[in-house]
Every structure is written in C-alpha cells, then in structure tokens.
Amino acid sequence: MKLRNPCIAVLLLAAGATPAGASDLEYDLLVFGSAELYESSGFDAPVSADFRRVFVSDQLVAADVLFSLQKNRFRLFGEQLVTNHESDLERFQIGWEATEDTVIWLGRFHQASSVWNHEHHHGQFLQTSITRPASEEWEDQNGILPQHFTGLLVESNWHLAGNRGLRTAIGGGMAPLLTTVGLEPFDVTHPDTHEHQLGFQARIGFLPDELGESGFGLLFAHNELNWEEGPPPALAGVTHFDQTVIGLFGNYVHDPWRVSSALYYVDMEAVNALTPSHYSAFGTGYLQVERSFPHGLVVFGRREDSVNAHDSSYLTLFPNFVATRTLLGLRWDYHRRQALTLQVANSKSLSDDSYVEYRLQWSGALF
Length: 367
Known about the structure:
This protein is mainly β. It has one domain: Porin, CATH 2.40.160. 6% of the residues lie in helices and 57% in strands. The two termini are 28 Å apart.
C-alpha cells in the first residue's frame, strides 16, 4: 500500500474541539502504540519479494489513533494508523443515533462479518496475540477477505428476557478491487476512478448475558470483486469474482479462561466472459485459547487451518496466504496499560513455504 498523508488536521480537531458553551459536545481521543521485532527461519523454498514485503520485515513501530465526537444524536468516528511503513485513514464514519440501541453510520468502516477485527481493530494492545488469524488479516497484509468498506453500516443491540441480548451489524458498500498483490479497498482520502463493485455483510450474535463477553452467532457476506487493471494470464477471461461467505463464531470468557473461534465457508464464482462460470469453495478458521495467571501473565495458543484451499482458483492470487499455523505465546501486562508479548509460530503458506516465526512486541494504551 502506498504511503499516504494522514488527516492530521481532522485528528487535531477531534482532540481540541471544545467550544465555549458546548457542554453537550463529547469527544474522546485514544492512542495505542506498539513496537515489534521479528525473525523467521526454516523456509522450504526461496522466498519471493512479495512474501518478504508482507512477512519478513524485521521491525515494526506503529501508532493507532482513534477519535470520536458526539453532539446530541450525531457522531463522528475515525481511526488513523501510522507505522514506519505506511500511514492510512483506516476508518472514517459519520453516524446518527436513531435510538438508544441503534446507530446508523456512513463512511469507511471495518466489515461487519469479522468479529476479530470488530473487537480489536488496529490496536495491538487490544488483542492478546501479536498476529491476527490469516482469515482476519488486512487487505495489505495478504488478507483474502475484504475488511474495509465505504458505504452504510447499521449496528444495533436487542434486549431479550433474562438479561440476554442480541447484537447485530449490517453493512454494505464499495468492495475492494483485485490487484496483482492482493485486495485494495476504496481510499476515501485518495479516491480512485476504478469501477468498484458492491459488497454486503451481516453479523448476528447471541449473548447469554448481555453485559458479558461470552456469545456466539452467525456471519454472512457477499462481495463482487472487480479487477483494478485486469486479470493475470492464468485467469484470462474472468471478468470478476463473486464471493459468498457463511460463518460461525463463538467467544467463551470465564476467568481465568478465554476461548475464541470462527469458521468460514467461502464460495467463489469466477465469472467468465468466454466460458461458463467456474465455482470453487474452501473453508478456513481458527481456535484461540488463553489462560490468565497471577501477576498479569497470560499464556495463549492458536490453531489455524484451511480445507480445499489449494483447489481454489481465487486463492492462486494469494500464494502467501497462511493455510495452516500453530502458535504459542506469553503476554505479560507489567503495567496497567502496557504489555510485553513473546510469540512463536509454525506456519505454512499456500505456496508451500514452511517457516517458524519468532516475535517480540511491546504494546500499550498511551492515552
């Protein structure tokens, strides 16, 4: 992804906008920081330049800035990510609080059918593990599912009897484009003139205790993925891909344990102008288990796996997608808002690169 100018003026406005007499104006500014060291070993084959660009950067420093403004029923929310490699306005949403339990957003948002990204966003301190599951990865990090949309998002809470609840999110808008290096979402700060197709996502989650963190639910998405410049020779004639995603997710939190999981069934239709459309499907998902110990220590492990991934014509565009991974890690929250995390993972990509990853990270909520 190209280096882009951050919307610093908007962030400063969010941080300092408190006009005299505007006591009903509320604002928040949160900044998450992180610094990471990375090493890898044991590659089965020579590693491509694209693979190294995505995976083998030996250090990463990042700041994730979230800001919000609210006046009566109007809301403004944004997220700016700045690293030593890029700067992007990840989210920018204008909202209307239709009821106490429903907010309607217009702008750029994280897609509704990813529970992981809905909970953790870009702030590394918010997630226990250093890396996110491959199925939840961002577009510019070899993600295979669209994660950023520009359009309309509706989020609602529903109160049920017995202190139970439902949380729903429904979104739709411009889907990312397919490029030679992966997916490229629409950029609201640098709009392009390419023909973005539409995408639709939905999530419904049931909470046995609406004030708790445990819950489970269903996910759905349908995306039309158009080419930015045209298909590669191996997919000549394919005008676009129609992607349908059906998923299940679950979170179980009971001190000292935390378990989170998601499974996706992904159906791909390669729409061909010359021959009948070709259909393929694959499955992918993860299971992460965490256990807390005294003195701020958390031991965690995650297993990621995929089914029929090598048979998907769509996934030939993502040879570095991590088809299987097993990781173990230890996190130490040594301060109320700072943590050190050590993580080791054994991974295998679709291109059959097998390698071991070693990561050490500091993360924190700065203010």
